[in-house]
Amino acid sequence: MGSTAEAMSTKQARQIIHVDMDAFYASVEQRDQPELRNRPVIVGGSRTRGVVSACSYEARAFGVRSAMPLARAVQLCPEAVVLPVRMEAYKAVSRKIFAIFRQFTDRVEPLSIDEAFLDVTGCERLLGEAVSIAQNIRNSIRKELALPASAGVAPNKYLAKLASEAAKPDGLKVIHPHEIEAFILPLPIGALWGIGSKGRERLNRLGINTIGELRRLSLAQLIQLFGVTGQRFYELARGIDDRPIIMDDTVKSIGQEETFPADLFDVDTLQTHLLRLTEKVASRLRKKSLLASALTIKVKYGNFEQVTRSKTLENPSASVPEFYPVAKELLSRTESGQRGIRLLGVTAGNLVPCETSQMSLFEDKCEKKKGKALDEAIDRIREKYGDPGITRGTLVD
Ligand SMILES: [Mg+2]
Which domain range does residue 344 map to? Predict the structure, then answer.
């Protein structure tokens, strides 16, 4: 096997969803004013001033486009209803849309008020699961907000965005790894992320109009033409895009602690609480698709004196069967059993995303699927019914 193929096989494909609302401002107006439905609606200002911020698909049929001067848009579509921008209303809807995204994953990268990337790469998940998540998101937006959204599902951000564009309006498009070539080759070079009108002209002069034609240029030729950007074009033209999802809030650690109504002396009881805290931390890690490389426990004695004990894990993990023995060992390095304990805490640190190359590590280390399946079953029950106090009997001494 060649080294590239080997590298590819050990690297798990990512699952990226791009969700984009259709004609967002105009759709909100049509929703809020039913008499505007099925009519050409332009949001942007007055009939004589400003530019088009958004236009309904009925207006697009007349050639109206975003960023077009309104006077021109009204010329193209005299029967259009022109409305002012109600930014506060759209922002309120946007918050609800992002809340829906975050019901499915915390790994959300907002691109604009109505558009985001979601990374749903996960343990044992196939692209099929990403597709059903994308469909569920579209259904939730439709049901809860009565608005249309389109979604693209693909192994990276670049392709996911192209897919959602191809899905519009009100559609879902999946680009499976084996479909990348067929999808990408016929696209115009304007579909290359970051190419400007100058770059397009330069390529057009060389007789290059599609991505397929661009593929005839070598990496060296592209770098000669565009500098470092040439390398990016070379990769995008092959459907390669390793940019990660950039979340607003990069999580540094995840912790959970509990203060007891009365100081605890009994080690068995403390261990039961320790297990529950460990489960909560592991569950939150999995929800954020993160693995931890370090575990810390915090103990506060009855007199408020506080100690912490930490250990670095051999391999990053989000697994209770791996965390719990470490947490127990850390507890044994405190004065538990001898002094009353009023507070116990567990924190997972040195977090890394649970994706790509780390995945194989994770799967190997995930207590041979069985422990992981149990972890995930508990996660699901918790999500559905809250925390019913499930504990795994086998792990409690
Ligand atoms: Mg949009």
Answer: 254-395
